[in-house]
Structures are given as C-alpha cells and as structure tokens.
Amino acid sequence: MSFSVAVIGAGTIGRSFAWLFARSGYPVRVFDPRPDLAEVVTELQADVSADAAAENMLASEVGSVSLAESVEAAVAEASFVQESGPEDPQAKPQLFAQIAAAAPDDAVFATSSSTIPASLIARHLPAEAAARVIVGHPFNPPHLMPLVEVVPAPATSPDTVERTLEFYRSCGREPVALNREVRGFVGNRLQNALMKEAISLVENGVISAPDLDAVMKNSLGLRWSAVGQFEAMHLGGGDAGIRGFMDHIGTSFAEIGELPLDLSDDGMADVYAQVEEAYGQTPSRAAAEARDRAQRSVLEARRQSGTQSQEE
User: Which residues are catalytic?
Assistant: First the structure.
C-alpha cells in the first residue's frame, strides 16, 4: 500500500496541512462534519494544482486532496493521520479511539493540538495504539511556517517519534522533538511569556501597541528570523560567547521586575482599542497576504544564505 495521509478537521490548520501534504506528493483524504466540505476540498485541490503548475512540477510529483464521508473512510488506508479538530479534552480521546479502531495497525496518529498532551488523548487506548499517538503541533499556517513541535507521551514509542520526524521532513518542515511533555510545549510557552510582557507594557502606558510592534519587527523579530535565543546570546558575548553575555548583562537583566498585568476583558480594553485602531476592527486579507509574503521572503533569504554557507 502506498503512503497516504488522512486529515481530520478542515479548519484553518487542517486545510493548511492538507495543502502541504498534497503539495509534497501525498494523496490526502479529508474529513470534517462541516456542510461545505466538498467546496473546501475542491478549492484545496485547485490551489495545489495551480501552485504545482506555477513551479513547473510534474503531475507525478504532486499529490491529491479528496473528500472522505466519515472518519473511518478517511483513515482506512492512511499511513499518517493528522487530527486538527477543536481543542476539546473530552472529545479528542473519543475521536482518537474512533481513529485507532478504523486505521491500519501501523498508522501514526498525530494531533495538531496546542495545549492537549498526547498522554491525555491516548490514556484509554490499548497500549499498541497509544504507542502511535503523538503531538505534531504546527505554527500557523503550517504550509508556510517550517516548525512542527513533535511531542511524545511516555507511552509513545521511539519508532513513532522517528517516523513522525521523517514524515514532516519529507514535507519540507523543520520538526523538533521535545524530550518530554510540558503544558503549552515550547513555542507557545515562549510566545506566552512575550505576549504577557507586551500586554503589560501597553497596559501600564510605557508604549503604544503599534509602537511595540515596531520595536519587535525592527529588533528581536529581525534577529530571531536569523538565529535563535541561545545562538544570539552566544554571538553577542564576544570571545567568551554566552558566558561573556551573561557576565555583561545577566545581573542587570535579572533585576528587571514585572509590571502589573490584567488579562481580563476590562484590563485589556485599552489594548483592544489600540490594536483595532491601528489595524482595523477585522483583520484584513491584504494584511495576512503581506505577512505571508514577508515570511516567504525571509525563508527564501535563509535558504539562499544556507546554500552560500555550504559552498564556502
């Protein structure tokens, strides 16, 4: 049987994953109870075909997106299942029991969940099925953002981890396997810490919301598109590397205290107002497209830089 993929859930993440998998050459079966699924699948297939044609790809290099009438039909012949349904800790274990009962005995069961660990999802499954449950958490949109956080439960087998990493790499992603489960995984924990600090700075009148975005885009955001946190520290510490960095500013950074923070709707009222005044009441499609173009340009620049480094 050839390698095929099932995508369960055709929301924003599920559609993006389906596009990515098909564009990477895999046949993809999609199920979602939404009434317009046929239109969604037709549009996805058209988008995949158009993008492949623009890149002068051969038909044999491109996968397909097709509609499944049920969870069971979607996963019946799947080698890899990507579940991207609602973040419901009661519903997901039931859904995965349904998937495990209908899928091949060697299929990998991945969830896109950003908060629910694989151990909770698999807790009532037989040991053999639980060994194939894993988190494959993307950053949105997954067809563009390279990272997929691969998070095994204690019951997840090493073989499942390796197969999951291999599959995402075959789709051009940059998967990173965590050593153990932690709430929020890594990307969202970092994002959460920065989000809270950004909100507190605006709430306490230190800076406006659009000016804070300008700070991010023209400093940390630009740096982090090239290097990660620890590499940046190492490069910034002179000949002593990260040790020099910490010797230089570690103590002063440790003395930076936290500002008051209120994440309730009342506390966030001024933040909401500033963001909506700066960017509009409803996020625009044009702004999202501009964001994606900029991110593609960054990825292309990184690719070019990596190619040049290998040639030197």
Answer: 149
